[in-house]
Structure formats: C-alpha cells, structure tokens
Amino acid sequence: MIIEVEGLRRTFRVSEKAGRFRRSHREVVAVQDVSFTVPEGETLGYVGPNGAGKSTTIKMLTGILVPTAGRVRVCGLDPSRQRKKLARRLGVVFGQRTQLWWDLPLLDSFELLRDIYRVGQTQYRERLDECTELLGLAEFLSTPVRQLSLGQRMRGEITAALLHDPRLLVLDEPTIGLDLESKARLRSFLAELNRTKGTTLLLTTHDLDDIEQLCRRLMVIDHGRVLADGELAGLRGSVAAERTLTVDLQEPADLSGIPGVTAIKADGPRVHLEFLPSEVSAAQLITAVAARAEIRDLAVGEASIEEVIRRLYDLRPAPQA
Ligand SMILES: Nc1ncnc2c1ncn2[C@@H]1O[C@H](COP(=O)(O)OP(=O)(O)OP(=O)(O)O)[C@@H](O)[C@H]1O
Ligand SMILES: [Mg+2]
C-alpha cells in the first residue's frame, strides 16, 4: 500500500472575539476517524464540500501538518517525521499555491528543484523534455513565473512535481480556475501518466468531470468524516440513484402513472423519464412506454455523478456538535 491511514484526526484551536476585550477559544475538528488505504497505481478522487477536511488530510499525508491522532504512512514513511525523505518520493501540487520561484524563469525553478531533489542529469532531461512536449511548455520556459497565466503556471507546477519521478502524485484542486481546454489537457496528461508509468494519483477537486475522467475510485468526505469510499460504479448502485430513459415519440402521449417512474419531463416529442432501477428495469419500462406510444428512438442513461454524490450526502448522519 502506498498510502495507509488509520483513525486520522486533526483539530485546530481557533480564537474568536468574545465581547470587547475577551477572546474565547474553540476547537475545530477538521478531520476525524478517517481510515483508508491506497494501493500502488490507484487513481483516487477525494471530494466534499468547502471545509470538509480535504486539504487538511492532504497536508497530513504530505507532512505539512502533524495529525492530532491516528497513523499515517505514505510510501512507507511517516510524513511529518520523515518529511524530507518523503519529498523525494512524492510529488505534490497545490492548485492555490506555488512551489515555483515567483521572480525566476520557469526553467530556473526546475533547475533549483533538480538540485534540491538531487535528480541526475539524464533523468532530469528526460522528464523535462517529456513534460515540455506533452504539456506544451516550450514557449514559456524562460518566462518569469509571475508573468505566466494560471493555466501555464499549473503546467509548470505539474512538471516541477514530476522531475524527481515520484511514485505518488498528490494534487489539491489541480484544475481550479482553468478553462475547459486546459482542464482537458491536464486530465489527459495525468491519465496517461497513470497508465504508462503506473504513477498513483490522489486528487481533490470540485469539478466532478475530473473524477469521471480520471479516477477509478472516489472518496466522499464531509465534516471531516468519510461518507463513502469505492469505485464509482459501486457507489452508483449503493445509492440506488435514478437512471433516465429518454424516448422520442411518434405522437405526443400521456406517460404518467408508470410504476417506478419518479419524474417525467417532456420536451416536444422527446420525453425524459427518471426511474428507480430497484423498482422497474429499463426493459420493463421501455415495454410499458411502447404500450402507450410509438417509440422512434430511445436512450438509457446512468445517474450523473452529481446526483450520486448528492444522494451520498443525503445519507449522511447529522453532524455532531
Ligand atoms: N490552519 C487552520 N486553522 C484553523 N482552522 C482550520 C485551519 N485549516 C483548516 N481549518 C478548518 O478545518 C476545516 C477543514 O478545512 P479544509 O481546508 O481541510 O477543507 P477543504 O475540504 O479543503 O475545503 P475546500 O473545498 O474549501 O478547499 C474547516 O472548517 C477549516 O476552517
Ligand atoms: Mg481545500
């Protein structure tokens, strides 16, 4: 296992103004009872609403924060105690922070990182050439980082995180603020990295397309606790999310009252039906529709990932005070 986490907990003491001169202290539980393991080669998406505890978890995995309780091993090391050693095996990208030198050309940052991580010349050149080509860095390698656009800088960040050829790449909101094309490019680069080199990926995101296109496995966290952990297909099944049947009818017809159908939306001759697979199968539903109207075309769809996650939230226990 490249990551092993057991009973992880992290609290913060925050002080608040209480009246004119007094300050009161309050304990915020950012992460509690979090346990999971990640095998090599996995692609794991870590999602949850703002303040759920994602970044706090990532900071404990990478040794930036010390856990209040629990056990963490990453690449066989204790992140906070063996932070330097871990840094040589791990790549980290924070979408909202830079690990590059603001005033230096991108290439100079890479060279500094090569020295810090003691990357051999041959490996350095290979990784740099590869990333330059696949991420299209060539035009701005000599541009100071502060002059780069967000999308350009992000490509630089990913390259910087990969120069020492880590087995594990941890990314905290890598696609935040990027345009559609930059997102797509980044996703396909990361998918390729996982496929060809077997690099393990752990990423947090608010863009569920990142998950759909990149992650085999999904972990959902809220109020510091893991609500769900599994392969996307399995999670879909577990929440019994509605599927959809879309039919194009020859003539408009009344399709109300079919058992198992939870919603109907007509859009001219096209009708969308949401149904619960636990109550009616797609085949039964098509038969029922065909008995009432002539079908010209049809398509059966999965519940969207948004819908699956929304339902996982609905299942959560009420947060404890
Ligand atoms: N340094 C800190 N001091 C005090 N509280 C903190 C600190 N860091 C995080 N928290 C609190 O811990 C909780 C979890 O924060 P965290 O940054 O892990 O959330 P997140 O899931 O990454 O959210 P987002 O999607 O907004 O990035 C929040 O309530 C936050 O206010
Ligand atoms: Mg965060």
What are the main properties of this structure?
alpha/beta, six-stranded mixed sheet, 31% strand, binds adenosine-5'-triphosphate, binds magnesium ion
Give a structural overview.
With 321 residues, the protein is an alpha/beta fold. The protein has 2 domains: 3-236, 3-Layer(aba) Sandwich (Rossmann fold), CATH 3.40.50.300; 242-302, Alpha-Beta Plaits. Helices cover 32% and strands 31% of the residues. The chain is built from 10 helices and 13 strands. It has helices at 54-61, 83-87, 106-117, 121-135, 150-162, 180-197, 208-214, 232-238, 282-290, 305-314, and strands at residues 3-18, 22-38, 43-47, 69-74, 90-94, 168-172, 200-204, 217-222, 225-231, 243-249, 261-267, 270-275, 295-301. The chain has a 6-stranded mixed beta sheet with strand order 5-6-7-3-8-9, with helices on both faces. The longest helix has 18 residues, at 180-197. The mean pLDDT is 91. Bound molecules: adenosine-5'-triphosphate and magnesium ion.
